[in-house]
Specification:
With 266 residues, the protein is an alpha/beta fold. Helices cover 46% and strands 14% of the residues. It has one domain: Alpha-Beta Barrel (TIM Barrel), CATH 3.20.20. The chain is globular and about 45 Å long. Homodimer.
């Protein structure tokens, strides 16, 4: 049966682009997509700027009625108060964001964010009316031990055990093997499919097939136009969370076009 899930191509800019560079990038990307007659109804393109660029992206999207969506790269678990440097889910939602990335390996490593904090972030994002993109994935060590699927599924389960069916159906999962992020190494299409299917099967066992079929599962980790078509051809891979390649408008446009074309054949 063909997948009814709308593919999502998400560009995570990380700590790149000031607000002027962000505006230029969005304008260029939209022009490239329009020139290619891109069908946004069949494939979604989302951008994840830094906090300082979100307002500029919002103004541009709303003023020009652009069809791209956008979100934030992280969120605080608190709503307001004396938390210097934190940004709440409500603040992000009021900027028109549709999504928030939660649990990215760089956040887990450098800040750090533990499982309990990530659960609270997911709940905060959902309560503010947005969708969390939950990042999971194994390191070299877990892969060496042969427990990569159990590890990724366990990370999802740590979050979903506190969600009801309606909340779980709004979750987006990004399988990003840590060893592939920014290294140039990439999982094979079969490895990405195995992880996505394991996650979807676990969601089905916990919440039922309806929820499992609704959740979009993305692949992330050195995604480029050279491997995107093979990846998204897999039945349980619904798109990408892209880092380095998302800083090049032409490359991101090409990946989006490949995702649209290839996913239409599922």
């Amino acid at each position: 049966m063909p997948s009814q899930r709308r593919p999502l191509v998400a560009g995570n800019w990380k700590m790149n682009f000031d607000h002027l560079e962000a505006t230029y990038f969005v304008q260029k990307l939209v022009w490239l997509l329009r020139d290619a007659h891109f069908d946004f109804k069949r494939c979604e393109v989302a951008l994840f700027p830094s906090f300082t660029s979100l307002r500029s992206v919002q103004v541009l999207v709303e003023a020009d009625k652009l069809k791209i969506t956008y979100g934030a790269q992280s969120v605080s678990v608190t709503t307001q108060g004396a938390f210097t440097g934190d940004v709440s889910a409500d603040m992000i939602a009021h900027l028109g964001c549709s999504y928030v990335i939660v649990g990215h390996s760089e956040r887990r490593k450098y800040h750090p964010e533990d499982d309990a904090n990530i659960v609270d972030q997911v709940r905060a994002v959902l309560a503010a009316g947005m969708q969390p993109i939950l990042c999971v994935g194994e390191s070299f060590e877990e892969r060496r031990q042969g427990i990569e699927l159990d590890f990724a599924v366990g990370q999802v389960r740590d979050v979903t055990r506190d969600l009801n069916d309606e909340q779980a159906a709004k979750l987006i999962v990004a399988y990003e093997p840590v060893w592939a992020i920014g290294t140039g190494m990439v999982a094979t299409p079969q490895s990405a499919q195995d992880a996505a299917k394991a996650i979807r099967d676990d969601l089905g066992a916990t919440f039922g097939q309806g929820v499992a079929d609704a959740v979009r599962i993305l692949y992330g980790g050195s995604v480029t136009s050279k491997n995107a078509a093979e990846m998204i051809a897999e039945p349980d891979v619904d798109g990408f969370l892209i880092g380095g390649a998302a800083l090049d408008a032409e490359e991101l446009c090409t990946i989006a076009r490949l995702a649209l074309k290839t996913s239409a054949r599922k």
